[in-house]
Design goal:
Helix content: over 70%
Number of helices: 17
GO molecular function: antiporter activity; xenobiotic transmembrane transporter activity
Mean pLDDT: 87
Main location: membrane
Keywords: Cell membrane, Membrane, Transmembrane, Transmembrane helix, Transport
Protein name: Putative MATE family efflux protein
Number of strands: 0
Subcellular location: Cell membrane
Structural class: mainly alpha
Largest sheet: none
Length: about 450
C-alpha cells in the first residue's frame, strides 16, 4: 500500500489537482534547497561581514554554469523513466534506474575535477572584486570537492519524480535542511570558519540527502528498485537519456553563461552592489521555484502522457500549466517587490546594500510571470521528446539577447546602470516564450500526425 501511495498516475483523472499534488511537494523541496542557500547567505552576511556575503553570493552563477550540464542529464533520466512508466514498460524503467545512477557517479567525478581546478580562473575572468576573490575561491573548492552527493541526489529524486513521487524527496531535504542550518551556525559563529564553514555545512547536508534518496530506491519493491549488483550502463537507454538531457544541460549552461556575463557587469559596480544583488537574487529565487515546481510537474506529466500517446490530455496540461504559472508569477513576484526592503534587511542591514537589492527586485519580480510561462513551454516540448529545439530557442532568445544587450545597450554611457542590466531578463523571457509557443504548436501537430499514421497501419 505504501509503495502505491507514492505514485501518481498522470495519464488519467483531474489535470489540475494531480499536477498540484505532484508540484506542491516539489515546490516545498525547492524551497528547502533554496533555504540551504538562504541560510548560507544570511549567516555569513550577519556574522562574517559583507565581504563574506559578497564572496558566497557571487559564486551562484558560476556554480550553475558548471552544474547545469549534469542537472540536464538528470532531466533526461526523468523524462525517459516517466515515458516507460506511462507506457507500462517495467523492465525498461528498471534499466533506466540503474543506468542513471551509474551516470550520476561519473558525472559527479567529472564535475569535482572541473570545479576544483577551474573555479578561480573563471572567477578572475568574471572580474570578481579582489577583496572577495580568495574567499570565493575557497568556498568553491570546498563546494565542488563534495559535489558528487549533490549530483546523485538530483538523479535519484528525478527517478522518483518519474512515477509521481515528490513527497519523499521533500522529507529527505527537510532533514538535510535542518542539519544544514545547525552546521552553518556552528561552523560560522562557534568555529569562526566564515565561508569555509558555510561550504562545509552545505556539502555535509547534501551528502545526507543523497544517502537518504539512494536508500529509498534500494528499498523500493517495484520497477524503481535499485540493486547495486545490477549497476551497469544500458547503452540504448543511456543514449535516450543523453539525447534528452544533454541539450537541456547545454541550455542550462548557456543560460548560466549569460548570467555569468550579467554577474560580471554587476561586479563592475563594486562589493556593495554585489552584496545587494546577491541578497535580492536569493529572495527572488523563492518566486521562481513556485513557478518552476509546476514547470517540472508539467515535464513529467507530458512525458507520462506521451508514453500513452494521449494528445488531448497533453493539450489540456498545456493550458492548465500556463495559466497556473502565470498567476503564481504575477502575484508572488509583485508581493515580493512590495516587501523588498524588509526582506533584503534580513540579509544585510546596510542601507546601500538594501537599495541596490531593491533595484533588482523592481525589474525581475514584477515581470517574473514571463519567466514562468517561458519555462513551461520549454518543458512541454522537452516532455514530448524534443530537447534540441527548446535548447536552440533558449540559446538565441534568452541567452543571445542578454549577451547582445550587455554588449550594446549597457555600453552606452547614459544606460550604464544595474537597472539597465536587469532589463535584459524580461526582454529575453518574452522573446523566448513567443518562439517556444510557436515551436510547441509545430511539435504537437507533428507528433499527433505521426501517432495517427501509426494507428492507421495497425
Amino acid at each position: 500500500m505504501q509503495q502505491k501511495s507514492n505514485k501518481i498516475d498522470m495519464t488519467e483523472g483531474s489535470v489540475f489537482f494531480k499536477l498540484a499534488a505532484f508540484s506542491v511537494p516539489l515546490i516545498f523541496s525547492s524551497v528547502l534547497q533554496l533555504l540551504f542557500n538562504a541560510a548560507d547567505v544570511i549567516v555569513v552576511g550577519r556574522f562574517a561581514g559583507k565581504n563574506a556575503l559578497a564572496a558566497v553570493g557571487s559564486t551562484g552563477s558560476l556554480i550553475n554554469l558548471l552544474v547545469n550540464l549534469f542537472i540536464g542529464l538528470s532531466i533526461g533520466a526523468n523524462v525517459t523513466a516517466a515515458r516507460f512508466f506511462g507506457a507500462g514498460q517495467k523492465d525498461r524503467v528498471s534499466d533506466t534506474v540503474h543506468t542513471s545512477m551509474v551516470l550520476s557517479l561519473f558525472s559527479g567525478l567529472l564535475l569535482t575535477f572541473a570545479g576544483v581546478f577551474l573555479s578561480k580562473t573563471i572567477l578572475i575572468w568574471m572580474d570578481s572584486p579582489e577583496n572577495v576573490l580568495d574567499l570565493s575561491s575557497l568556498y568553491l573548492r570546498i563546494y565542488f570537492g563534495g559535489i558528487i552527493p549533490t549530483i546523485i541526489y538530483n538523479f535519484g529524486s528525478a527517478l522518483l519524480r518519474a512515477k509521481g513521487d515528490t513527497k519523499r524527496p521533500l522529507y529527505f531535504l527537510f532533514i538535510a535542511g535542518i542539519i544544514n542550518v545547525i552546521l552553518n551556525l556552528f561552523f560560522v559563529i562557534v568555529c569562526r570558519m566564515s565561508v569555509a564553514g558555510v561550504a562545509l555545512a552545505t556539502v555535509i547536508s547534501q551528502g545526507i540527502a543523497a544517502f537518504l534518496v539512494v536508500m529509498c530506491l534500494v528499498k523500493e519493491n517495484d520497477e524503481f528498485h535499485l540493486d547495486f549488483s545490477r549497476l551497469r550502463v544500458n547503452f540504448p537507454i543511456m543514449t535516450q537519456i543523453v539525447k534528452i538531457g544533454l541539450p537541456a544541460g547545454f541550455q542550462g549552461i548557456v543560460f548560466s553563461l549569460s548570467n555569468v556575463i550579467i554577474q560580471r557587469a554587476v561586479n563592475s559596480f563594486g562589493d556593495i552592489t554585489v552584496a545587494g544583488n546577491s541578497a535580492a537574487a536569493n529572495i527572488e529565487g523563492f518566486v521562481y521555484i513556485a513557478m518552476n515546481g509546476f514547470s517540472q510537474g508539467t515535464l513529467t506529466f507530458v512525458s507520462q502522457n506521451m508514453g500513452k500517446q494521449d494528445f488531448a490530455r497533453i493539450k489540456k496540461v498545456t493550458r492548465v500549466s500556463l495559466l497556473t504559472v502565470f498567476f503564481i508569477g504575477f502575484i508572488f513576484g509583485n508581493t515580493v517587490f512590495l516587501l523588498g526592503k524588509i526582506l533584503i534587511g534580513f540579509y544585510n542591514t546596510n542601507s546601500l546594500v538594501i537599495h541596490e537589492g531593491v533595484i533588482r527586485l523592481k525589474v525581475i519580480c514584477t515581470t517574473y510571470a514571463l519567466c514562468g510561462i517561458m519555462d513551461v513551454t520549454g518543458s512541454i516540448i522537452r516532455g514530448m521528446g524534443h530537447s534540441v529545439m527548446p535548447m536552440a530557442v533558449s540559446m538565441l532568445g534568452a541567452c543571445g539577447s542578454r549577451i547582445l544587450w550587455i554588449a550594446t545597450i549597457f555600453k552606452i554611457p547614459e544606460f550604464h546602470s544595474c537597472f539597465v542590466v536587469f532589463l535584459s531578463y524580461p526582454i529575453s523571457w518574452f522573446l523566448t516564450f513567443a518562439v517556444h509557443f510557436i515551436v510547441f504548436l509545430f511539435v504537437y501537430r507533428k507528433e499527433k500526425a505521426v501517432c495517427k499514421k501509426r494507428l492507421e497501419k495497425l
